[in-house]
């Protein structure tokens, strides 16, 4: 048998459509793209939890969790006293969650996905919505690469785990769906590296519209192809328990990882 990192048998991947017409647990993931500033003036009470990634805590004081990597400069962390509901999430918290979903090598070593897998495992939402995580940068926005100015386009770096951001987004959506979580994109940009279904904030507030959008995700995914991709990951057996996969890149076969990316891209149905 083939198992996910959390012990789930791939044969049990039969996905069921969640009923999201009633009260749901919705998590907002806020990245650092310029359009993440949309959240600044929104009423965020629609969301059960609001997760800021890296510098995104500066956008709104209503964040609940801040997820940041080991190399995040300490001076860029919040300097004010945290509110009782606010928590900082670093490697000791997100590495075990990431490993439970197969590890960094297969998930993609960039913080949008890392924070997403942490939220999926720790918060167990019904819906996860991404904003400011399109990974297209100034080429589409026509402005600074990040809401705070120009920053390093981390997902575009030369990294064996990031050969296809689109494939990594399909993997995330597939594993989230297996855990009865729908994944959506709030972006208003014309292009995104995330292949999640699009949604507007207004649509999220309408239960019937929300259900239709979630149904769309269910139709997008092919269970048999997901099982095939997960089996390929299991057979290849790349796992770095520490999370520091970059210390072991010489051990990874780039072509084999690219082939797994291709399997994940096949797991999403043609539009």
Structure description:
The chain has helices at residues 91-100, 104-107, 111-123, 138-141, 165-178, 201-204, 207-220, 223-236, 254-266, and strands at residues 26-30, 49-53, 65-67, 87-89, 127-131, 182-185. By secondary structure, the protein is of the alpha/beta class. The chain has one domain (24-266). It has a 6-stranded parallel β-sheet with strand order 4-3-2-1-5-6. It starts with 25 loop residues before the first strand and ends in a 5-residue tail after the last helix.
In whole angstroms, the N-to-C terminal distance is 32 Å
**Spatial order of the strands in the main sheet?**
4-3-2-1-5-6
Shape, principal axes of CA atoms: globular
Largest sheet: 6 strands, parallel
Write the layout of secondary structure elements.
Layout: E1 26-30, E2 49-53, E3 65-67, E4 87-89, H1 91-100, H2 104-107, H3 111-123, E5 127-131, H4 138-141, H5 165-178, E6 182-185, H6 201-204, H7 207-220, H8 223-236, H9 254-266
Parallel strand pairs: 1-2, 1-5, 2-3, 3-4, 5-6
Helix pairs in contact: 1-3, 3-5, 5-9, 8-9
Overview features:
globular, 9 helices, 6 strands, 33% helix, 271 residues, alpha/beta, single chain, 6-stranded parallel sheet
Quick summary:
By secondary structure, the protein is an alpha/beta fold. The chain is built from 9 helices and 6 strands, in the order ββββαααβααβαααα.
């Amino acid at each position: 048998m083939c198992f996910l990192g959390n012990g789930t048998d791939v044969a049990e991947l039969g996905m069921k459509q969640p009923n999201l017409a009633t009260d749901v647990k919705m998590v907002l993931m806020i990245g650092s793209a310029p359009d993440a500033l949309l959240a600044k003036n929104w009423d965020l009470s629609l969301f059960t939890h609001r997760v800021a990634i890296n510098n995104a805590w500066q956008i709104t004081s209503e964040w609940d969790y801040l997820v940041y990597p080991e190399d995040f400069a300490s001076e860029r962390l919040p300097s004010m006293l945290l509110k009782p509901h606010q928590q900082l999430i670093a490697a000791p918290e997100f590495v075990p969650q990431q490993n439970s979903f197969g590890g960094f090598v297969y998930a993609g070593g960039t913080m949008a996905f890392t924070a997403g897998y942490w939220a999926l495992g720790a918060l167990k939402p019904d819906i996860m919505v991404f904003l400011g995580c399109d990974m297209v940068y100034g080429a589409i926005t026509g402005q600074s690469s990040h809401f705070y100015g120009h920053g390093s386009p981390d997902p575009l770096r030369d990294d064996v785990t990031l050969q296809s951001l689109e494939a990594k987004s399909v993997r995330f959506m597939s594993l989230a769906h297996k855990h009865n979580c729908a994944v959506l994109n709030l972006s208003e940009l014309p292009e995104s590296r995330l292949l999640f279904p699009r949604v507007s904030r207004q649509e999220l507030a309408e239960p019937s519209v929300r259900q239709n959008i979630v149904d769309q995700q269910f139709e997008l995914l092919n269970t048999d192809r997901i099982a095939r991709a997960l089996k390929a990951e299991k057979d290849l057996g790349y796992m770095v328990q520490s999370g520091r996969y970059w210390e072991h890149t010489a051990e990874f076969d780039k072509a084999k990882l690219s082939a797994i990316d291709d399997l994940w891209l096949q797991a999403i149905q043609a539009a």
